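PROTEIN DESIGN WORKSHEET
SECTION A - STRUCTURE
LENGTH: 171
TOKENS:
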């Protein structure tokens, strides 16, 4: 269990680093006249993310799970997910946040990844991250119950984002 906790803390700390970028960018976007969309959904996604992480850790604790081959696969999946997170942050730079903001004259990222994968932050970071943390912790209940619930919120977010972007381009 000790290695699961240490690994969990490392990845959770990386998530907090990404939040620091988000907070900084949010302030800049607001100064540029940014408008937030889906405020309630952003809050629910944040709460669901935290609940999912700690549910997986709690499940590992209750089951007294030791770091095993499934945990190693989870670390690999999470490593991929976090590499994608920081690549997306790198590419979007000042417009990346965990919330949904649109600024006047917003630039659109048109690099290979963004042309190839629609919503790479969701499909290459968030979803693999959640699967990875469940595998790390061998948290099958969290994966089978929490993941579909989280996906419902994520579908709402994707629809909100696409609607906001359509509004931006149809002006």
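SECTION B - SEQUENCE
RESIDUE ASSIGNMENT:
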């Amino acid at each position: 269990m000790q290695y699961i906790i240490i690994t969990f803390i490392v990845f959770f700390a990386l998530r907090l680093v990404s939040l620091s970028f988000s907070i900084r960018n949010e302030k800049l976007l607001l100064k540029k006249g940014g408008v937030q969309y889906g405020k309630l959904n952003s809050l629910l996604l944040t709460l669901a993310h935290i609940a999912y992480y700690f549910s997986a850790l709690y499940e590992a604790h209750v089951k007294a799970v030791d770091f095993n081959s499934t945990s190693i696969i989870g670390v690999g999946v999470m490593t991929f997910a976090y590499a994608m997170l920081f690549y997306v942050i790198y590419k979007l730079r000042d417009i990346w946040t965990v919330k949904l903001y649109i600024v006047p004259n917003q630039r659109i990222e048109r690099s290979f990844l963004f042309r190839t994968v629609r919503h790479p932050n969701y499909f290459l970071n968030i979803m693999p991250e959640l699967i990875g943390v469940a595998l790390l912790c061998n948290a099958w209940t969290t994966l089978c119950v929490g993941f579909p619930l989280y996906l419902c919120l994520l579908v709402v977010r994707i629809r909100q984002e696409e609607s906001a972007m359509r509004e931006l381009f149809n002006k």
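SECTION C - NOTES
Residues 50 and 60 are 16 Å apart (CA to CA).
The longest helix spans residues 2-31.
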